[in-house]
Design brief:
This is Uridine phosphorylase. By secondary structure, the protein is an alpha/beta fold. The chain contains 7 helices and 9 strands, in the order E-H-E-E-E-H-E-E-H-E-H-E-H-E-H-H. It has a single domain, classed as Nucleoside phosphorylase domain (Rossmann fold, 3-Layer(aba) Sandwich). It is globular, with a radius of gyration of 16 Å. Bound molecules: 1-O-phosphono-alpha-D-ribofuranose and uracil (URA). The site of uracil has 9 residues, from strand 5, strand 8 and strand 9.
């Protein structure tokens, strides 16, 4: 038991956990892809489920939005529940006209405008990066299931409603592909705990074209990403 995640004895947290920001996306994944899912936590309605996928135990836990929230839930999963692997299954806004709404982006590294790293007291700028082991599994899963993705740098921002129309262009000029709000904290917590993390996101908004997915699409439609993450989780 931890402060923010309760555990039903019948459903211990699995070694590998998928983490969407949206707890209702967690519910959707559990109910549509896991066998015999049991909801082990509903504190603050931040649902967590454990079931099996292809016979292997897998959990799905909402992270909430932003680095403080992801920071709390992933910390407790790694340090209180012996979780080894976390795969974020999120949404992101694309800065790149080659990466369209509905495409999948994998965060090799997560730039950030947040000061989350202050907790770790490094005497410089830390570079949050993904687990190579999980990346290799994801690549294999993508090839086996014919699901494509683009891998590169994303930025994890503290602010969703940034002021002005142009703020993202400087990130784009550094070949940062997309913006989301959690990967950097997840990668830092994983590194500090000596565990594995990978953030994959489906593009829900486009900064170049102005396109936007609906709330319903963000909750339920991004199934290739869910499948890819589940396949990687059980390898
Ligand atoms: O869809 P999720 O996983 O929540 O991810 C993105 O969506 C939220 C903003 O709408 C932020 O959490 C951002 O990172
Ligand atoms: O953080 C996010 C997520 C999706 N779309 C955005 O523009 N920002």
């Amino acid at each position: 038991m931890s402060l923010h995640i309760a555990i039903d004895d019948k459903a211990p947290v699995a070694k590998s956990v998928l983490m969407p920001g949206d707890p209702l996306r967690a519910q959707f994944i559990a109910e549509n892809y896991l066998d015999s899912p049991v909801r082990y936590s509903e504190i603050r309605n931040m649902y967590g489920y454990t079931g099996t996928y292809k016979g292997v135990p897998v959990s799905v836990q909402g992270s909430g939005m932003g680095m403080p929230s992801m920071g709390i839930y992933s910390w407790e999963l790694y340090n209180n529940f012996d979780v080894e692997n976390i795969i974020r299954v999120g949404t992101a806004g694309s800065f790149n006209d080659k990466i369209k709404v509905g495409d999948i982006v994998v965060s090799l590294a997560a730039s950030t405008d947040s000061n989350y790293q202050h907790a770790f007291r490094v005497p410089g700028q830390y570079s949050p990066s993904c687990s190579y082991e999980l990346l290799r599994k994801l690549q294999q899963a993508g090839q086996e299931n014919s699901i494509d993705f683009t891998a590169g740098n994303v930025v994890s921002c503290d602010v969703f409603y940034e002021i002005g129309d142009d703020w993202w262009k400087q990130w784009a000029s550094m070949d940062v592909l997309a913006v989301e709000m959690e990967a950097a904290a997840l990668y830092m917590n994983a590194a500090y705990a000596g565990k594995n993390a990978l953030a994959i996101m489906t593009i829900s908004d486009h900064f170049v074209t102005g396109e936007k997915a609906t709330v319903e699409q963000r909750q339920k439609d991004f199934t290739d990403m869910m499948k890819l993450a589940l396949e990687a989780a059980v390898k």
